[in-house]
Design brief:
The radius of gyration is 21 Å and the shape is elongated. Helix 2 packs across helix 3. The protein has a two-stranded parallel sheet with strand order 1-2. Strands 3-4 form a two-stranded antiparallel ribbon. The longest helix is centred in the middle third of the chain and has 17 residues. With 192 residues, the chain is α+β, with helices and mostly antiparallel strands. It has 7 helices and 6 strands; from the N terminus they run αααβαβαββααββ.
Length: 192
């Protein structure tokens, strides 16, 4: 599980933190994990952090740390991956790469992936099925095109929302309209 808030280890190298994901495979009293190094290397390669494997984690950016924690999850070689806001702190490139990786893992890796995402376009791009939750209740579930409907999103979020479908790809695109688009901005008393 990749939680939103994680402790920040100090004085450890990236490879060591990713290696935490192998904890379930280690025997008691410091026993070995013969498949561990290969799993850690694979996870770092998949998340794009292999080139910083020997750097101290307390020297890294938030986006790099996010990818390292994902690598830690992948090193577990588990059949279920739960991710809470995995694109947090990532720039556009790494958001896309992470979502592509998650989609690939779900498609080819025999891994069930559960994601919590607040970016509805990201959710639509990566999910087979969405659950729209509001006030602690599931308001809708199903394929993205069925759940991400303008009238439902407008009701849930309390602002006007438009939903478009890309004619080329069929992808759902959610666009909130400015809440104050029709209200004039009050004058500040000075010249513009």
């Amino acid at each position: 599980m990749l939680a939103q808030n994680r402790p920040m280890p100090s004085g450890l190298a990236v490879r060591d933190v990713v290696g935490f994901g192998r904890h379930p495979y280690r025997a008691r009293l410091g026993g070995g994990d013969p498949e561990g190094p290969a799993a850690v290397d694979r996870a770092m390669r998949l998340t794009g952090v292999a080139d910083i494997a020997d750097r101290a984690v307390d020297e890294l950016s938030g986006g790099q740390l996010q990818r390292i924690w994902l690598a830690c999850c992948l090193a577990q070689d588990t059949g279920v991956l739960l991710l809470d806001e995995p694109t947090t702190f990532l720039d556009l490139r790494y958001q896309v790469e992470l979502l592509d990786l998650v989609r690939d893992l779900a498609d080819t890796g025999d891994i069930a992936v559960g994601l919590v995402l607040h970016d509805l376009d990201h959710a639509a791009a990566v999910a087979d099925e969405l659950h729209l939750i509001a006030d602690g209740r599931i308001r809708a579930c199903g394929p993205p095109a069925d759940v991400l409907r303008a009238e439902l999103l407008t009701e849930v979020y309390g602002i006007a929302v438009e939903v478009d479908h890309d004619p080329r790809t069929g992808a759902v695109h959610v666009r909130p309209l400015r809440r104050r688009a029709r209200e004039p901005v009050p004058a500040t008393g000075g010249e513009p």
